[in-house]
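SEQUENCE, STRUCTURE TOKENS:
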Amino acid sequence: MLKCRNVWKKLAPLARASSTVCRQNVRRAGLPNGRIPARVPVAHMSTGPTGGGGENHLYVLLVGAACLGGGIYAYQTIKGDQQRYQDRINEISSRSQKAATEEPTTPIQSEPPAVPEPETQAAPSPEEPSPPVPDVELAAAPSETAEPPPEPSPPSEPSPAELTEPPPAPVVESADEPVVEAPPEEAAEPPAARVVEEEQSPPSEPSPAELTEPPPAPVVESEPTAAAAAESPSAEPPEPQPEVVAVSGVDSTPASLKVPSHTPYLLIGGGTASFAAARSIRARDPGAKVLIVTDEPDLPYMRPPLSKELWFSDDPSVTETLRFKQWNGKERSIYFQPASFYINPEELDSAENGGVAVLTGKKVVQMDVRGNKVKLDDETEISYDKCLIATGGVPRNLQVIERAGEEVTQKTTLFRKIDDFKSLDKVTRNIKSITIIGGGFLGSELACALGRRSHESDLEVIQMYPEKGNMGKVLPEYLSNWTTEKVKREGVKVITEALVKSVTCKDDKLEIQLKDGRLVKTDHIVAAVGLEPNVDLAKSAGLEVDSDFGGYRVNAELQARSNIWVAGDAACFYDIRLGRRRVEHHDHAVVSGRLAGENMTGANKPYWHQSMFWSDLGPDVGYEAIGIVDSSLPTVGVFAKATAKDTPKAATEQSGTGIRSESETEDTATSPVASSTPAPAMEQHKDDYGKGVIFYLRDKVVVGIILWNVFNRMPIARKIIKDGEEHADLNEVAKLFNIHED
């Protein structure tokens, strides 16, 4: 108070002087307007000596009273803050003790308040696994709220008595933070209702035990992390473990599977092209989230062994394990990767490091290109950022078989998938005669494979086709005839120039009537007459289908639309050397899928690769081809005597893999070195074609090459076609393949 009076004594003269100046200014400004009187009484001016006048004393009294009241209020406020601060510190230090004493009592009493007891943190842990989790969390972070952070460990489901147990532990903390003027005993009950409301809102699980207990939420968050860690080995194990059990598990889950509503990368189809694209996407974008949707019940697998090595396996359970021995004796699985390589579709969204998920048994039936979403056959919708269509194709059937009725169709196999292999293997063990219609790659491979089996049983294997010899549309006539004799030596009865007129079923036997009058009786038919590209999504998506070759028309980057790519058998692409084409081979699926995956991640690369294909007529005869191999084109063949190294078996021993394209497509040929061994004259009609090179010409330029029992030379053939030069002497070109070296 004394300080205020001293301050006032110093400031009062200044205040009076300013007041006098203001009055004088107002008087001067008001005189001309006649609003203020000309004479102002001096008695009303506050210009007297200090201490004079009652008005000044009243003014000082009011100011002093205000200062005094403010000081008292400030003192009380500071004192109260100190007391509340001390209470807060005491409450924080005793927080864990209160939580420990309340938890053992709440399972017995349904009311939140608990009687304080001595610390017994170690006692509840052996009886109830869930209460110790809040204790650890509270002790680890005493200054944090208990409501936001859920318990990290996944405890077992609590009993009904425990449903009211979790609230008291957070009640103490929630009361501690917002309430600062009341002791914890008074604040324990009001926040309890609020805590229950906050815990009821996040979980929407049907189980009543989960409505008040937060542990189930972190369980979902912790599982994706483990799944992502399991997915991390993105390297390709050469021999994955048998996946039959794992695949059947995947097969049984789609009904209850939670399908992600959105995925950055959507791959339609579960074949070779989709898997190659997924691997390419993950290589360029390690954190990418890829979803593969396939209507098959199996994980991505390779199709070539279905008509080759699997039939030569000595394992009676090969249809279950789907493991086979390559020609070099090494064993591997038909699946590209084991089930552990993939993550569950419902965990894809929460996977920190991304991954590849496969949604099996689901078919995409509609595609909304503008809305960037697809609809599955169960009405589920999935949106995407970028999409790949790799639907492959469906086996063609003969119209005479389709019109023959149900009895005939039930005894007919269209060979394409794992289920077709399993069913055909079972059928051939229970019948006496089987007829393969088709003389192409698939028909000839199956004929040789089943012919080998006929040596061990009394199975009659018949192969018929309209051409004059096996693979007559691909190989020159002389080589096609040689191949036909090779197939006959495998135990196959070959019927050439056979055009099917009708098929009927009589006395549980199929009768195949040919147009030339011949009649063939058999127990079962395998139709291997080609592949029809699957373009079911073209109409709903508004995508263009090529009228000549079939399949989706794509540009040089395999792009059908701005965010849609197509790869594999379903893609009709433009070859910068050979024009527009559509290829139905494994190597093309690998290369086109890989390129599509790169372009989906922004590579913008054109498709210039000349894909190859191969076919094996058992472990002793095989060939690899590239470019346009059409028997209607003029051909030039250069052959040499074969050695023990010139077989598919020897080729796989050298490359280490039965899928030869996996090693071939990674190589490039820059400057091949020709053989120094002199070559004999060309022999196109020799009876024994051990090994050689067949050149297919168009306008005197090589557009296709077949390497007959010549392996690991495909990069050279690819370079010859890429150069597109006219060669005067193809015998000299054949030296590049070193076919004359022993």
